[in-house]
Design brief:
By secondary structure, this protein is α+β, with helices and mostly antiparallel strands. It is 22% helix and 23% strand. Strand 8 and strand 9 form a beta hairpin. Helix 10 packs across helix 11. 48% of the residues are buried. The N terminus is likely disordered. Its cofactor is Zn(2+).
Length: 905
């Protein structure tokens, strides 16, 4: 009881301090407040803002990015002291001035206010939310902490966490409505609802789910989390102070894993790594939590992640892999078995990947101050107490993975499911006669009350015998067997009949059979597909000890005919697969999930948890890109497509994966452009001639964004080379990793593609002074995100407009742009557009080049078009007859010889 009281008092103290700090965090509290205020006053007309719109601002987060020397300040709009939900702008301060401002403030707020008085209590808001989401009626709701219009309520029996409620304004149908903003983490862990309830009518105005279900398969499985009951102790541990004179200690830890850049068992083998933790990101190793020498945990738990199994899917705290005092996590791995057999190896790989995601991206600015995931922040800023809770082999669903990201100071949750086996099982092997070989057979269904057992990985080998129960249908085995002496020690063959399977198997087991082969009824097609007859349900007493399988009629009748002909047949019953696959061995999937946490914490600042809930947000795209970046190898090619989650999805190493196309710079492989993000975009036709459209806008919008980032990555590598050192490398891959991370910090809350593009351009300006502006523009313009592209309203998915134009040559940032010319000449003298192109390509010149020969060559060097013309003003080239792909356009005359890469859509 004393321990519980201590935890409660500690929690109350933390909440009170947090709320007090929150209420005082006005704009003037920052050393940059006056700078930001001055900037907004000077530029308010540019953003269509009035003085009243920026008269009441406060800072939600502020931190310095060491790599760029930029201080990121996140400023929220208020009206008369009440926060406007997600009216959150990003401000970058460098050299004492506003270097970049990403506006997300609402203009003319006074004209939009609908009411200023709440008639609905916060308790009623919780109750309305519970009814809306079919939760239980809240019980014993008590206020734990209060600060102004912000409350913390007890969980009411409907939430795993206490329920925060804050009075806010919400923009709804162009009206600012007074509302209660609250979050409820459901007891079944499937949702972490973030909800705005109208403070006058009680209606649910809007909601989003902090749980991101990645929908890798057709099933939209939900995310679940464990309870946080032990975190009271964790919060006390975070008071351990960081020792400025710490000494990095090699703890001798070893992990047998699929090491990056290996993506999965398809891509390479395991290796035993010693002391893989990074000295900068994890100075005390991966098993520390108190900032002193020596590991606090000898299991797959530490400061950055706690990896544990949840096979039962019951949201309880599961078993972790145990490394002993020596931290030796070297476990055998044989994938030719059910995943439960290699659980420790799986959890070790899950632990490893979460830690390297933490350590690698720390070097690119995802550190404590910016809201990364650590239990103890070692005095480096941020709140701490938010290490990743990672569930491996979670039994609550299949074929998916999830990640939930609450605001900083609350632990995110990664959930890794198993993936269903592909292919048909062949658990029956005939070892002799002309029937020798593997036979497709059904493995009995399992479930509550089903005592029928399927084959195990321990083979049962014996001769086969046809049963006889002494009746006219004796081979159905519905009665006690009269040939028990023959059945003893044999595998019994039984025909399907009119009595329960459990009776048949019971009679065979009573007669001493060591296994059972059930033969199905005949069907019109003799379909060998086992799916139609897997439901071998029933109860036995005693529980069966012998395995059973179910073969189709055609195979079964051959076996029966041979037995009637007195042919001695020997067989084996064994579970030889195919087996479910473990998502925790797909490093790309783990990186993808962790990536959701990075993009959510960096967009809008670590205190925001709902900035990536607009429809055009690119969260799935960043997550795919995170996985792609960490699994690149020195010999990779930009044109060769790369699929996502091919191991988990049961494909070969060169499989397409779970996206509409592979990631490739080759438009013949991946020709998607910005226009494809519109919901009504037609993708093409399937094999039956049916029109194919987006069926999952969130993931496919992300796919288009990741396609652009992948092109950008290879453009950087082409310029700067590739460096396999993911932590401290200097290659093009490292450079693009840095600007994408910086772009996440610079963009506003609720970003669209244009916001993301502009943030990356600005990140390059801040980091290099704009050395790669041309390169960045060329990549984005080639995919339809050119200078005139419009994202429209970022909450809409039907108003995007693509554009393939570069900015004007007069733009100072583009003064050093180069082309593919082989001779020196002024590239501003001509322009080739649009690119990519559908049918007609235009060449526009600023002077008369005289007679030239224009040729188009495909990627195999074959000339597919040639034309002689006078190049003056504007000419057009019709390429409508060319197939989709990449071509080289050559313009050859007396005064120029230039090549341009052309993409035919």
């Amino acid at each position: 009881m004393k321990k519980n009281l201590k935890s409660f008092l500690f929690l109350s103290l933390v909440l009170s301090v947090s709320l007090a700090a929150y209420s005082q965090n006005r704009l003037e509290s920052s050393q940059y407040g006056a700078i930001i205020e001055s900037y907004l006053n000077v530029n308010k007309e540019k953003f269509n803002l009035q003085a009243e719109d920026i008269s009441d601002l406060y800072i939600t987060d502020e931190y310095l990015t060491k790599q760029t020397k930029v201080t990121h300040v996140y400023v929220n709009q208020r009206y008369q002291g009440i926060k406007i939900f997600n009216a959150l702008s990003s401000v970058a301060i460098k050299n004492g001035r506003v270097s970049y401002y990403a506006n997300n403030f609402i203009p003319q707020i006074e004209d939009k206010i609908s009411t200023q008085a709440a008639t609905l209590s916060p308790e009623n808001a919780i109750q309305n939310t519970a009814r809306r989401f079919n939760l239980n009626t809240p019980q014993d709701l008590n206020v734990i902490a209060v600060s102004g219009k912000k409350f913390i309520y007890s969980n009411g029996g409907i939430s795993q966490e206490n329920i925060p409620v804050e009075q806010v304004y919400v923009l709804h149908e162009n009206t600012l409505k007074l509302a209660w903003d609250l979050s409820i983490y459901t007891n079944d862990s499937s949702h972490w609802w973030s909800v705005r309830v109208d403070a006058a009518s009680g209606d649910i105005l809007e909601f989003n789910d902090w749980v991101v279900s990645c929908n890798f398969s057709d099933d939209n499985h939900a995310h679940h989390n464990h309870t946080q009951s032990t975190n009271k102790l964790d919060k006390e541990e975070t008071f351990s102070l960081f020792n400025e004179n710490y000494v990095v200690t090699n703890d001798g830890s070893q992990y047998n894993v699929f090491p990056l850049p290996e993506e999965s068992p398809l891509h390479g083998g395991r290796a035993l790594l010693t002391n893989p933790s990074d000295d900068t990101a994890s100075p005390y190793g991966w098993h520390d939590t108190n900032g002193a020498a020596g590991a606090e945990f000898t299991i797959t738990r530490g400061n950055n992640v706690w990896a544990q199994e949840d096979v039962n899917g019951n949201n309880g705290f599961g078993v972790s892999a145990v490394g002993s005092a020596s931290l030796n996590f070297d476990f055998e791995l044989n994938l030719n078995q059910e995943p439960i057999g290699y659980q420790e190896a799986s959890l070790t790989n899950l632990f490893y990947m979460n830690n390297v995601m933490h350590d690698i991206w720390y070097h690119y600015g995802f550190d404590e101050a910016s809201g990364n995931f650590q239990q103890n922040n070692y005095g480096n800023g941020g709140l701490g107490n938010d290490y990743v809770l990672a569930d491996g082999q979670d039994g609550s669903s299949l074929n998916n993975a999830n990640f939930s990201t609450p605001p900083e100071g609350n632990s995110p949750r990664m959930q890794m499911f198993l993936w269903e086996a592909t292919g048909l099982p062949t658990p029956l092997i005939i070892n002799n006669t002309s029937l020798a070989g593997n036979f497709v057979a059904a493995i009995p269904a399992t479930g509550v009350g089903n005592n029928i057992t399927g084959p195990s990985d321990i083979p049962v080998t014996a001769d086969l015998v046809l049963v006889n129960d002494g009746t006219a249908n004796g081979t159905e085995g519905c009665n006690a067997l009269v040939n028990g002496a023959d059945v003893m020690g044999k595998i019994a063959v039984i025909k399907r009949g009119n009595c329960p399977f459990v009776d048949k198997i019971q009679n065979a087991q009573n007669a001493g059979a060591v296994g059972v082969i059930m033969v199905n009824h005949n069907n019109p097609d003799n379909d060998p597909d086992y799916v139609d007859y897997v439901n071998m349900a029933g109860q036995s007493n005693p529980v069966f000890t012998i395995p059973s399988v179910f073969v189709n009629n055609a195979d079964g009748e051959q076996i029966i005919a041979a037995l009637i002909a007195n042919q001695p047949i020997n067989g084996t019953i064994v579970n030889n697969g195919p087996f479910n696959r473990d998502g925790s061995f797909d490093n790309g999937v783990i990186a993808h999930e962790y990536g959701h946490g990075i993009s959510n914490r960096l967009t809008g600042g670590p205190s925001a948890a709902s900035c990536l809930t607009n429809r055009e947000q690119m969260g799935e795209g960043w997550s795919d890109w995170f996985g792609l970046m960490l699994t690149m190898k020195a010999g990779d090619s930009p044109e060769i497509g790369k699929g996502i989650a091919v191991f988990a999805n049961g494909e070969d190493v060169d499989g397409v994966g779970i996206r509409p196309a592979k990631y490739s710079t080759d438009f013949a492989v991946n020709d998607f452009t910005y226009d494809a993000t519109n919901d009504d975009t037609v993708l093409g036709q399937d094999s039956n001639g049916n029109i194919v459209r987006w069926n999952d806008s969130q993931h496919n919008v992300g796919f288009v964004w990741a396609t652009m980032l992948w092109d950008l990555t290879w453009a950087y590598i082409d310029k700067y080379g590739f460096d396999p050192d993911l932590y401290n490398g200097t290659g093009g891959n490292n450079k693009v990793m840095q600007i994408v991370m910086d772009g996440l910090k610079l963009q506003p809350c609720g970003p669209g593609f244009v916001d993301g593009r502009d943030a990356i351009l600005q990140a390059d300006m801040m980091l290099t002074g704009g050395e790669d502006q041309c390169l960045i523009w060329e990549v984005f313009a080639a995919r339809g995100l050119g200078v005139n592209a419009s994202q429209g309203f970022s909450f809409s998915m039907t108003d995007q407009i693509e554009d393939f134009n570069m900015p004007l040559d007069t733009d100072p940032s583009l003064s050093n742009c180069t082309s593919l010319s082989v001779d020196e000449f002024n590239t501003s003298d001509y322009k080739v557009y649009p690119n990519p192109v559908n049918d007609v390509l235009y060449i526009k010149t600023s002077k008369n080049f005289g007679e030239v020969t224009v040729t188009v060559t495909d990627i195999n060097g074959r000339r597919v078009l040639s034309k002689q013309t006078q190049l003056s003003g504007q000419i057009e080239i019709n390429i409508s007859n060319l197939q989709t792909g990449i071509y080289i356009l050559n313009i050859n005359g007396d005064s120029l010889n230039a090549n341009n890469k052309i993409i035919k859509k």
